[in-house]
Specification:
Order of helices and strands of chain A: EEEEEEEEEEE
Helix content of chain B: under 10%
Distance between the termini of chain A: 41 Å
Number of helices of chain B: 0
Radius of gyration of chain B: 13 Å
Largest sheet of chain A: 6 strands, mixed
Number of strands of chain B: 11
Structural class of chain A: mainly beta
Distance between the termini of chain B: 35 Å
Largest interface: A-B, 22 and 21 residues
Oligomer: heterodimer
Radius of gyration of chain A: 14 Å
Order of helices and strands of chain B: EEEEEEEEEEE
Number of strands of chain A: 11
Largest sheet of chain B: 7 strands, mixed
Structural class of chain B: mainly beta
Shape of chain B: globular
Shape of chain A: globular
Helix content of chain A: under 10%
Chain lengths: 113, 112
């Protein structure tokens, strides 16, 4: 089955800096890669996703890049703000008739004012 | 508003009791999932369903059971709660094709 590894497990940045979280996946047939943000005590929420036919996608201060050859994808947050502090999870869905998301272990991002 | 709802939000219960965690969605999604998560930690899939009368065990072994009699409803039952079941349980759903999940707000279960 699919295996998703996520790094780093914790990340601390100063407000205004950029943050990058990286994930690798094992199944070359995987074709959908979402990112979730989970604030303390709240539910995980989808913030951005990318499909395997696209190399990059942006939404305001966040962007995701996908390198299918290397089987890795990354989340980029620019001009970080304290409200970006949360746990971020990457995930992947394998090809075929599988609809289950395999999640990375999460990255705790702390943005210091 | 179309969403996924979980009840109760918090539950403290004694060892040996039977409990059912409720999950309902009003988005018309065919696929539903249960995850177990300790605070700020990994999401472990314990059950999933791709449609009515279809349920499968997830990647993490669990003593809980689920049922899917109606599309919108996916309850999780623990026949005999133990302190090791103390955790947060998150329900999620997804629609047609391959896409992201919508998560419920979770049930934080404490077994004493």
């Amino acid at each position: 089955g699919e295996n998703v590894e996520q790094h780093p497990s914790t990340l601390s940045v100063q407000e205004g800096d950029s943050a990058v979280i990286k994930c690798t996946y094992s199944d070359s047939a995987s074709n959908y890669f979402p990112w979730y943000k989970q604030e303390l005590g709240k539910r995980p929420q989808l913030i951005i996703d990318i499909r395997s036919n696209v190399g990059e996608k942006k939404d305001q201060r966040i962007a995701v890049t996908l390198n299918k050859t290397a089987k890795h994808f990354s989340l980029h947050i620019t001009e970080t703000q304290p409200e970006d502090s949360a746990v971020y999870f990457c995930a992947a869905i394998s090809g075929g008739s599988n609809y289950k998301l395999t999640f990375g272990k999460g990255t705790l991002l702390t943005v210091n004012p | 508003e179309a969403d996924i709802y979980q009840t109760p939000r918090y539950l403290v219960i004694g060892t040996g009791k039977k409990i059912t965690l409720e999950c309902s969605q009003t988005m018309g999604h065919d696929k539903m999932y249960w995850y177990q998560q300790d605070p700020g930690m990994e999401l472990h899939l314990i059950h999933y369903s791709y449609g009515v009368n279809s349920t499968e065990k997830g990647d993490l072994s669990s003593e809980s059971t689920v049922s899917r009699i109606r599309t919108e409803h996916f309850p999780l039952t623990l026949e005999s709660a133990r302190p090791s079941h103390t955790s947060q349980y998150l329900c999620a759903s997804s629609g047609t094709g391959k896409g992201g999940y919508t998560f419920g707000s979770g049930t934080r279960l404490t077994v004493v």
